[in-house]
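Why do we care about 3D structure at all? Because function follows from shape, and shape follows, mostly, from sequence. That is the central idea of this module. The next example makes it concrete: a single protein chain, its amino acid sequence, and then its structure expressed as tokens.
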Amino acid sequence: MRSIRARLLASLLGALLLAVLVMAGVTYRNALHETEALFDYQLQQMALSLRDQGEIAPGGANADLDFVVQIWSVDGRAIYASRPHPALPTRAILGLADVQVGNQTWRTYSVATFTRVIQVAQPRQIRERVAADAAWRAVLPLLLIAPVLALAVGWLVQRSLAPLQRLSREVKLRDAESLAPLPDDGLPDEVAPLVGSLNALLQRLGAAFDTQRAFVADAAHELRSPLTALKLQVQLLGRVRDEAARAEATAALAAGVDRATRLVEQLLTLARNEPGSRQPTLKPLDLGALVQQALADSATLALARGSTLALDAAPGLVVQGDNAGLTALARNLADNALRHSPPGATVQVSVQREGDAAVLTVDDSGPGIPEPDRAQAFDRFWRREPAHQGMEAAGGSGLGLAIVKGVADRHGARLSLETSPLGGLRVVCVFPLVGEG
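And the structure:
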């Protein structure tokens, strides 16, 4: 039974039925006892009233048809009977007693005076029938009201679950794109926290979908430019007749393909590090060794620019991380530093321990980022105006620091931008060490 309504009805109606049966049984038993006590009292009063009378004329006892009055003299001679009966008690037991005569039991009360013995008797069968009738009359109203109570219980359960049914209809009528909050007016206290949590989830989903839509729109916009440029370069290559011009156009086309390839790779890396995407399990990694390997991947770009990548890494700094994610972080920091530094410059990379943390620092000698702009430097596709940066920077995708921010957040690292001693930008990423507080 999975329905809350069915469970409530079954539980409440079962409890109601049990309560009615118990109350009916108790009421029936009490009514029987009270009726028995009333009949005994009636026997006593009749006998005591006859004790103080003188001679009793025939019919003078005025006994009820259910009662039989007998009087004996002190020597045992029967001197009076209120009515004839084929089987009357022939002996008297003083006080209340049950007397068996043949197949019939009599309830008797007898009292003695100096001259006679008075007995009032009543058949037990009549007493039990009258007592049962009285008990049923006491129980009957309770049995009659039980169905009314059951209907009231059903109505109350239906009314109490109405907010849930209304909420269910509201959710069922929604389309897949509706992320508006669910109404919480008139909800019971037990349901309101659930609806509040659902609304918070819908709000987070809405924010995530908005971010994804913005990401797709920005990515489409960013891809359009290099693809258009590639198309123009292909057309230009087809029109070139001079070998030197053809070689130059071919080199420009190859550079355009490289830029488009890098942009696509950065988009894929950024998507893999988005919140909510499936992430690999983190494991202990040597941060210095990992950064050294990432810088080796950037060596080609450094050679092309005539620049130098200098690494100072302390050994044995183990952090909890994802190898691919941390490699992407280090490589993007190195690539950004190389692209924003003048050709032939030196990019200094350091991995050192500070307290209970491993600190990755990347310094370049480029134009840097003014402090007012640093807060938005981690936004996707953000680039400074070309007037404030070199051509290489102007041709960037604006995704490098966004990728770094996504990876750092996933690893619980603190990321900050500062002014480098080399005159450019310093990027500092602080990772908690494995096993450290």
